[in-house]
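Lay summary. Proteins are chains of building blocks that fold into shapes, and those shapes determine what they do. In this project we predict the shape from the chain. Here is one chain we studied, written as its sequence of building blocks.
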Amino acid sequence: MKLFAFACRPFDEEPCFHRHAEALGVELGLTTRPINEDTLELAAGYDYISILTNPVTAPMLDRLQALGVKMISTRTIGYDHVDYIHAKAVGMGVSNVSYTPECVADYAVMLMLMALRKMKRIMQRAVINDFTLQGIQGSLLCERTVGVIGTGRIGRCVIRNLKGFGCKVYAYDVYPNPDLDVEYLPLEELLRRCDLITLHAPLTAENFHLIDREAIAKMPDGVVLINTARGGLIDSDAMIEGLESGKIGACGLDVVEDEFRMYYYDRRADVLGNRRLSILRDMPNVVVTPHMAFYTDRSVSDMVENSILSCLYDAQGQKNPWKVV
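And here is the predicted shape, written in a compact code that computers can read:
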């Protein structure tokens, strides 16, 4: 099998690609360049390609198919950056990957603690030797009632972590897990009961802006929002309005809307053109990190290996646990 990987980072992914490809007997091509209209031709001669979070549009899929590509594997859990509906229509496969859920679950709890303990302001003040106490009094995680939206592998791990802190935990999922030791609630009831809400659902057309003005209005005053899933799950304008009014007490965000072509690049000299991000980063009660929750040595290895395996399983006609379409 021949696989071409786009946007391969030389400092962490490339050694994993070489190690896993050699072990699995896969012929490999690599580029550091992301997939876009200008780089599509690099896929010529390869049946399978591996990408990151760069958008793949319908015209790009048509061109890839003409080049002979059979399937696209994204080295991410989310796959909303690929027009998978068009891919299905033209018969091209799309797959994602999985990786150890602890990395994102631990990070989500870290953001909860940072938001509750007002860590952003504490660190900012410490830099300028302001060691006063006024305005930085925090609250306890164990006293929060937490709503976990999405109980896949990561959501389940978050629930396990939160129970260790002594939190009361409720959950919501379109497909509840009967084996999970947690009480599921209808979404509206969860929003009303929980004063800390953490998102762990994939982004789909059906749940885009799941957290909108109407949803926020149902939440308790001073609610804390945590998002380590996808930025599009939250209506950013509604979230900013909630923060400005005090309805939302704090946010911990590892993802934001319209982050494609921004995160993972050196944009120091650029005007980002993301007003919502600028507003959120300026708020003292909002912690924003650049989609880093996944980023551990274990997860990078998992993502590369599973992307290769996904393509290999497809080529061999085996059951592919990561196949989307």
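What the prediction tells us: DSSP finds eleven helices and twelve strands in the chain.
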